[in-house]
Amino acid sequence: MKVLIFGLGLNQGGVGSAIFFAKQKDHVRVTDLKDKIALKPSLNQLKNYAIEYTLGQHRYEDIDWADLIIKNPAVKPDNPYIQYALKKDKKVETDMGIFLQYVKPSQIIGVTGTKGKSTTASLIYKALKNAAHPGGVKLAGNIGKSVLEATPHIKPDSLVILELSSFQLEAFDNKKISPHWAVITNIYPDHLNYYKNMDEYIEAKKPIVKYQTKDDFLFMRKNDPFISKGKKIYFSVDDLPKNFSPKIKGEHNLENLAAALAIVKQLGIQKKEALKIMKNFMGIPFRLELIKTWRRVKIYNDSAATNPEATIQALKTLPNCILICGGVNKNLPYQDLAKAIKKYAKKVFFLEGTATEKIRQIKDKTYSDLEKLLQDIKSIVKPGDTILFSPAAASFNLFQNEFDRGRKFNAAVEKVFSD
Length: 419
Prior knowledge:
By secondary structure, this protein is α/β, with parallel strands linked by helices. The chain has three domains: 2-93, Rossmann fold, CATH 3.40.50.720; 98-279, Mur-like, catalytic domain (UDP-N-acetylmuramoyl-L-alanine:D-glutamate ligase, 3-Layer(aba) Sandwich), CATH 3.40.1190.10; 289-416, Protein-Tyrosine Phosphatase, Chain A. It has helices spanning 13-23, 40-45, 60-65, 80-87, 95-99, 117-130, 169-175, 198-205, 207-210, 251-266, 271-279, 308-317, 335-344, 354-359, 370-378, 402-416; strands at residues 2-6, 27-32, 51-55, 68-71, 91-93, 108-112, 137-141, 159-163, 181-184, 217-220, 231-234, 289-294, 297-301, 321-325, 345-351, 366-367, 386-389. Strands 7-8-6-9-10-11 form a six-stranded parallel β-sheet, with helices on one face. A six-stranded mixed β-sheet has the order 12-13-17-14-15-16. The longest helix has 16 residues, at 251-266.
């Protein structure tokens, strides 16, 4: 089969898709608007496979050539090349669409929301893995690599915890299925550079419950705008014991813990056992992650905070901090964040970007170099201070993505705070 990967990208999804089909001995071609220099990290991972490339452009002849087109989830449906492919009756899928051919909805615990998806999905995975589910448990989805990498490890009786972005939920809508267990952590404004408005963003989240039946389950906060035919189970921080002290910080993480607890209880794990496992959960990289303590100064990496609400929660968790924020605006409102910075931050340093102009109230200096920024912070920091890297914005002007941003921040911290 001739498979065209439409959008290789730098987030591993395109790489995983290309490898999946190359291993199946399909004829694979990759096309991306970025050139080989920009795509070098992804291309390096594909150098041992027989793959053709059309880089720096898209071509209609590549669409004509393909039997199957794997669309990067972030490519909009109205893309002219995708529209051309559909008019030509070409099969257009995402990697999630292919993955759903390998699993049944009854195997899927789907987790979506604006924030907390990764933490909640990881908590569920940790608890179920510890309980030794007979068919095994797999964590996949929006976790920095293609979901297709999980397919060889899934058995007919496996449970699959899928962290699902609004883009990935498009595949569920196309297949007209929803997970047997659906989890919605929360809904805040996000991706409004992609969606026309908040209503359209919420609509993109609805496939997680849209095709549920009375035999399915929806776990959600009260008053969130979702309707399901399945059984609704509400969660809140009040579900946790009053004396519960988890290792992960933040009121928002208590809500994530409550969500995970509700699901694993439904799957037969005793509350006491689940709480014991979750209490020791240390969190995941780039989510309020303590990466270094230098001369009684704590440094946190919250690079996954790509919208204002996430940074507001981080500021509430670590008040009186020295904040580093800024980046690319996703057409989001920043008024509440500006107020939170004024209330909670001891001092703020800005990375360059369109969001920065929305956040800052005065003409502060902006930085394009993390090391220079950290050197300036180092010159003023005092024992007992906290440094919080929580951008509240996307990263594409200075970094490949939020994971690349997080890794580069860690590297800069190690270099600057090495003595």
